[in-house]
């Protein structure tokens, strides 16, 4: 490995700057960092057309290493592709032969846990579940539980503007972040955020939240912690249809109750979740002080009774809690000729029903459709998200990519027709990039491109991601 590095341009310069042991050009490492968990990358691998590898993979050990890497990359105009733990599903990582893949997995320290101020600080590459376990040892919780928690990084949560399954009470990642340490494209170190709240101009943390590696590299994150909940209870209901379930959820949240988990499944997904279900399941988890949990469960049950939403077996929620992060590998489906994905959007209450009806009908009209369904998983006073699933069978593997893109197109267009937001928590990557003009309109795109140019005038940071025509 040493001879290869010292004989190859940028890799040799990086080895000199941060140490040869942190720079990799061997085939196995390069192949393992070609892409993330995006379905389309796996479709291409499955069809025998894998994408290229990077010029090298660099694994920094500290923020100073990241500064040195970006200074060199900026000076030479070399593209840099940040790589967390590879759990992204929208094409945020796609290697190219002229690029450096910046593997943050080597920065995985717990920097500090502060039980007085309820703050936890982690290297950006820290595994999310390991971070949660570290604070749990002190009777605390981050409260951020994405399905990918065991395979995603704390920095990745920030970079993709992630949501966790308990977000309806604990908030999304932007509600949990206290401060962010990041290295800008020219190598400057910036620490963004002081105190529990500030009125000191624009909140610059927001530039890094959802930036997907296009504006710099997140190297450290401080999150605001919570004490572990005193009590937990679960409840399950069946609504006669999706519209009634939506109204039930709206009444719950607008009445002031905030169950951390509130999920609603259409009839197809309800039957997959529990064979006894004949209508639309609504599942809730309640956490916090024991008195609050008791009051919340009683009030929501009473509300359900008034609305004609019947009680369902609570063990359905227990089953979901025990299996919620079990996800088969994409290849298990591709080998059977099935192209599938999950696509999350969001909308206000007066729009969400039309988006559900339009998108599911459009998906089910696709030739070979096996599934075109949805559930909600994140609840707000003004609306909620929908998580669509599509699965299409084909005997022609050459059509897999076209089928995949068509499924996405139908969901994006239906959401846009009715005024919803085209992404809730997975981010933009490449799969949503060309829909950003619909999401932001001309003014928003102008602002985004101006920020990109100001911070990264040479365009070295994760080119091809998020920003159309960047």
Fold blueprint:
Blueprint: H1 2-6, H2 9-18, E1 23-24, H3 27-32, H4 39-46, E2 56-58, H5 63-76, E3 80-83, E4 100-103, E5 110-114, E6 119-123, H6 128-136, E7 140-141, H7 154-160, H8 167-170, H9 173-176, E8 177-183, E9 189-192, H10 205-208, E10 217-224, E11 226-227, E12 231-239, H11 242-254, E13 261-265, H12 267-273, E14 280-288, H13 290-307, E15 310-311, H14 315-323, H15 330-334, E16 338-348, H16 349-364, E17 369-376, E18 379-380, E19 383-393, H17 400-417, H18 436-455
How would you describe the shape? Answer: globular
Counting structural domains, the number is 5
User: Taking all residues together, what is the mean pLDDT?
Assistant: 96
- The proportion of strand residues reads 15-25%
Sheet of most strands? 8 strands, antiparallel
CATH architecture of the largest domain: 2-Layer Sandwich
Class by SSE composition = alpha+beta
CATH topology of the largest domain: Uridine Diphospho-n-acetylenolpyruvylglucosamine Reductase, domain 3
Q: Report the strand count.
A: 19
Rg: 23 Å
Top-tier CATH class of the largest domain: Alpha Beta
Helix segment tally: 18
Distance between the termini: 34 Å
> Approximately how much helix is present in the residues?
25-40%
Provide the low-confidence segments as ranges: 1-7
Account of the 3D structure:
The protein has 470 residues and is an alpha+beta fold. It has five domains: 2-105, 2-Layer Sandwich (Uridine Diphospho-n-acetylenolpyruvylglucosamine Reductase, domain 2), CATH 3.30.43.10; 107-227, Uridine Diphospho-n-acetylenolpyruvylglucosamine Reductase, domain 3, CATH 3.30.465.10; 231-323, Alpha-Beta Plaits, CATH 3.30.70.3450; 330-417, 2-Layer Sandwich (GMP Synthetase, Chain A, domain 3); 432-470. The protein is 38% helix and 22% strand. The chain contains 18 helices and 19 strands. The chain has helices spanning 2-6, 9-18, 27-32, 39-46, 63-76, 128-136, 154-160, 167-170, 173-176, 205-208, 242-254, 267-273, 290-307, 315-323, 330-334, 349-364, 400-417, 436-455; strands at residues 23-24, 56-58, 80-83, 100-103, 110-114, 119-123, 140-141, 177-183, 189-192, 217-224, 226-227, 231-239, 261-265, 280-288, 310-311, 338-348, 369-376, 379-380, 383-393. Strands 12, 13, 14, 15, 16, 17, 18 and 19 form an eight-stranded antiparallel β-sheet that branches. Strands 5-6-10-8-9 form a five-stranded antiparallel β-sheet. A hairpin with a 5-residue loop joins strand 8 and strand 9. Helix 16 (349-364) runs antiparallel to helix 17. The two termini are 34 Å apart. The model is unreliable at 1-7 (pLDDT under 50).
